[in-house]
Design brief:
The structure holds two protein chains of two kinds. Chain A is of the alpha+beta class. Chain A has ten helices and ten strands. Classes of the chains: A alpha+beta, B alpha+beta.
């Protein structure tokens, strides 16, 4: 069957996230973007919504089963508040969900409970690399086997909370496949590098991480000796990214719509001019299109189908859409869209970053 | 619940309908494009028999019957129309059954009127029905129609001219069907005066005066209809007589469009899918893979184009499904119906145009059907509300503006 309405349980969660996104994330977003981080208590309140905890089974310290559809709904709502805040709150998830999907039983028991029980604590995935043609399926960071250990070399960028993370999940090429390795923070050869400035996501502290012959015992390879299948993890990341893109765009669209109904020109609100009204109609249409594709990818994940292709389509759709919609929002506000007193310029900067989000999130 | 599983009953039907589209429709597609006003009787008769055999009767949702489980009528229709249009969008429009005419009866008629007008589709012979709104001087501005209905005792007398009536000839001349004519009972009242009237085939005073020559969907006739002192029984005014004094007429027209716009979108996307599949076939023949999930820097231009087209197509189809799902759930879907039409009209046009470009001289050639699909697709951004009118509908809804506030 087809269905397009969240369950009552999902609606309750969305409602709770909406309050948090409005009050906490929106309230702190402007200053956080300029200062480079959200206050810890904001992240803690986001963590207490329990989005990640609810997707980890009880056996591993959580209180539910992962559903990507719920994750996508949550991601949109959080990103509506602020995408950097969403990424910060979800950061432990980008470490935990690949372990849940591809880890051995030992790895799940060892890492998941300490991550989901208690307060928000920094854990990070290190995926992105500093080259223009970065692609998660063909990484430059490499792993090799040496005396039963794995040795990692390479450089990562855009690693959230690298400064304080308790452990890293580092993605690297091993035997021509993308594989992942769990690195506790004290591993020799794991060097925390500088902070790179980026166009958007200003409130998410990210650093470079260098792997200088970082040596790990064999048990730290995700999935153990056999490794793991990266496709489901990539599908999850693409889907999360698409849903986040929808959230960014919806924020910009709603703001521009309210502004257009209020702002007067030639004696009427500018929203009464077709040139503005049609832009808004197209924005609403494109947001809905991208949202439904993200939902379908998420549903495929939950239904145990191969969601990779749909997730890739969803990401393509959401990337273009988020850029276009946020750009038009700035356009509708005119000069007011260009100044940092209004949040739409920030959403436009975030909007361009959607293609990079799969390196930073999972559902 | 959010879910995307095609119900097995629909999947099964699609297998059969897919075979019809491929083996029956595609082989004659070019012929009827080349022979504009010939009537595809083989197709029409076959579809009529097939629908009678399955008990579908008309293409009105669920044929008026109650089925087990969740209602699927509009969803099933969307799938059927998509598949037939994948075969040929013009021939799909020749499918016997109610079409827009039945949709208007369905949206505005009383139970008695539905019984009276809709049962004919399940009879011995194929019957079509259509709807007439556009006039020579007005299209999108429906409230400006001048066709006049005047009450005369137990009758209505209609005078006026309608143009661009899809399947007008097949509904009035080639089969004993009907046309739902929108006319005004009070020209001073604007949209409040609009009313739908059923004009049956062979009604004196109703003539088909012209068949258009078109860019595409050529196997579907597009007729002009002139009404000259056309006398109708009083009960041919759709809706209960009490409503006659209330400003419900325009709303009835809009309710019809809420039901039919997603179905037009479905037709558009059937054509677009045909084009997209052809592009894939040609790439596969040349051994050119389409790799998914690569960043922009690693994609070829071809891959980027094809993936874009697929993303546009799939997302538009999901919007259609949402709009028809809402119709089945009896939820108001004006916004979603128009959104789906905005999106599908856009993407079907773009996908088919790009596909012709991508395949170069092969795509431009009339030896393939691709150039035809490009011509066929364009109508979907025009009929049943242009892309611009649908943007207006969407804009008014999201802004919560009346038609006075946003003109």
């Amino acid at each position: 069957m087809y269905g397009f309405e969240p369950t009552d349980e999902q609606k309750m969660l969305i409602g709770a996230i909406q309050k948090y996104a409005q009050k906490d994330l929106r309230g702190a977003a402007h200053d956080a973007d300029e200062q480079g981080r959200f206050p810890h208590d904001v992240l803690q309140r986001g963590w207490e919504l329990g989005v990640l905890q609810a997707s980890i089974p009880e056996a591993y310290g959580g209180y539910g089963d992962r559903t990507a559809v719920t994750g996508a709904l949550a991601a949109e709502e959080l990103a509506w508040g602020d995408v950097a805040g969403a990424l910060a709150v979800m950061a432990p998830g980008s470490f935990a969900l690949p372990i849940l999907l591809g880890g051995t039983e030992d790895q799940k028991r060892r890492w998941l409970p300490r991550l989901v029980e208690g307060d928000w604590r920094p854990f990070a995935a290190a995926v992105t690399e500093p080259s223009f043609d970065f692609y998660s399926g063909d990484l430059r960071t490499s792993a090799r086997r040496e005396n039963g250990d794995y040795v990692l070399r390479g450089e990562k960028c855009m690693v959230p909370f690298a400064e304080t993370a308790e452990a890293f999940l580092v993605f690297a090429r091993f035997e021509d496949r993308t594989q992942a390795f769990i690195l506790p923070r004290d591993v020799d050869g794991l060097v925390i590098g500088e902070t790179d400035p980026y166009l958007g996501f200003g409130a998410l502290p990210m650093r470079r991480v260098r792997l200088e012959e970082a040596r790990l015992p064999a048990e730290n390879r995700l999935g153990g000796e056999a490794g793991f299948d990266p496709q489901p993890v990539l599908a999850s990341a693409n889907t999360a990214a698409a849903a986040l893109g929808v959230g960014i765009a919806r924020a910009a669209y709603e703001y521009a719509l309210a502004y257009a109904k209020d702002r007067q020109a030639f004696g009427v609100p500018i929203a009464q001019k077709q040139s503005i009204a049609f832009m808004l109609a197209e924005m609403a249409t494109e947001i809905e299109a991208a949202r439904l594709l993200a939902w379908e990818a998420a549903w495929q994940i939950d239904a145990g189908k191969d969601a990779f292709k749909t997730s890739a389509l969803a990401l393509t759709c959401a990337s273009d859409m988020a850029m276009t919609v946020t750009d038009r929002a700035v356009q509708i506000l005119g000069g007011h869209g260009y100044i940092r007193e209004h949040p739409v310029e920030r959403w436009m900067r975030s909007g361009r970053g959607v293609p990079l989000l799969p390196g930073l999130a999972a559902v | 619940m959010i879910e995307f599983e095609t119900p097995p009953t629909i999947t099964k039907q699609m297998t059969m309908l897919g075979a019809v589209a491929e083996e029956m429709i595609r082989p004659v597609s070019r012929y009827f494009d080349d022979h504009e006003h010939e009537i595809p009787w083989t197709y029409i008769n076959f579809m009529h028999e097939a629908m009678r055999a399955t008990g579908a009767g008309s293409m009105a949702p669920d044929g008026g019957k109650k089925r087990e489980g969740a209602p699927l009528g509009y969803q099933r229709l969307a799938f059927q129309i998509e598949m037939l249009s994948w075969g040929d969008a013009g021939l799909y429009l020749c499918t016997p059954g109610g079409g827009l005419g039945a949709a208007a009866v369905e949206a505005t008629g009383t139970a008695q009127q539905k019984e009276r007008f809709l049962t004919r589709f399940a009879g011995e012979k194929p019957v079509l029905a259509c709807m007439a709104m556009t006039e020579p001087h007005c299209g999108s501005d429906t409230a400006a129609i001048r066709t006049r209905a005047v009450r005369d005792g137990d009758s209505w007398i209609l005078n006026g001219e309608k143009i661009f009536v899809t399947a007008g000839n097949k509904s009035l001349i080639d089969t004993p069907g009907f046309v739902v004519v929108w006319a005004t009972i009070d020209p001073a009242a604007g949209r409040a005066g609009m009313r739908p009237f059923v004009v049956e085939a062979n009604t004196p005073g109703c003539r088909v005066t012209k068949l258009e020559h078109k860019l595409g969907i050529r196997s579907s006739d597009t007729a002009s209809i002139v009404l000259e002192n056309c006398r109708l029984p009083f009960e041919n005014l759709l809706g209960s007589p009490e409503i006659e004094t209330k400003p419900e007429g325009f709303r009835g027209a809009m309710a019809t469009f809420d039901a039919t716009r997603p179905l037009v979108s479905a037709s558009a996307l059937g054509v677009a899918r045909a084009a997209l599949e052809l592009v894939h076939e040609h790439l596969a023949q040349q051994g050119i893979p389409v790799r998914y999930g690569l960043p922009r820097s690693r994609q070829t231009n071809l891959e980027r184009e094809v993936i874009d087209m697929e993303a546009m197509h799939r997302s538009a189809w999901l919007m259609v499904l949402k709009a028809v799902w809402m119709a089945d759930e009896r939820r108001p879907n004006t916004l979603e119906a128009s959104m789906s039409k905005v999106r599908a009209g856009d993407v079907a046009t773009r996908i088919t145009q790009r596909a012709v470009e991508l395949l170069g001289p092969v795509g431009y050639s009339r030896k393939l059907l691709l150039e035809k699909w490009m011509r066929d697709a364009k109508i979907n951004d025009i009929f049943e509300g242009t892309g611009q009118i649908n943007r207006l509908v969407v804009a008014r809804r999201i802004l919560d503006y009346s038609s006075k506030e946003l003109r």
